[in-house]
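Record type: monomer structure entry
Structure origin: computed from sequence
Chain ID: A
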Amino acid sequence: MSTPELPSDVEAFMDFIGQNIALSGDLVWQERGRLKSDMMLVRHRWAPDRVPLDAFRTKCEAVGMTPEEAAEVVDWVQRTQAGRRLQLRYIKDYRWPQEPV
C-alpha cells in the first residue's frame, strides 16, 4: 500500500520491513534494529518535512504492525526528528540502500 505523503525511499523501506513481519509474524528484534540504525545513520531521511507522523503510522499499520508496534516505531521517528538518539543494541551499521531524494 502506497502512502502519498511518504517519500519513495521510506515507502520501500517500510514495505521491506512489512515483508519480514509477514514471515516472522511480528516486528522482531532484527527489524527493530534495522529501523533504529537507519534512523540514526540517515537522520535526514526521517526529517519532519519528509515523514509526517500520521502518514508514517498509517504505513506502519498497513505493513502489518500492531497498533502497539506502530506507536513504538512512530515514537522513534519523533525522537529522531527532535534530534534525540536511539539506543542501538545489536544492529548499529544498517542503512537502507536507497538514498533519500
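Annotation 1: Residues 8-81 form one domain.
Annotation 2: The two ends are 20 Å apart (CA to CA).
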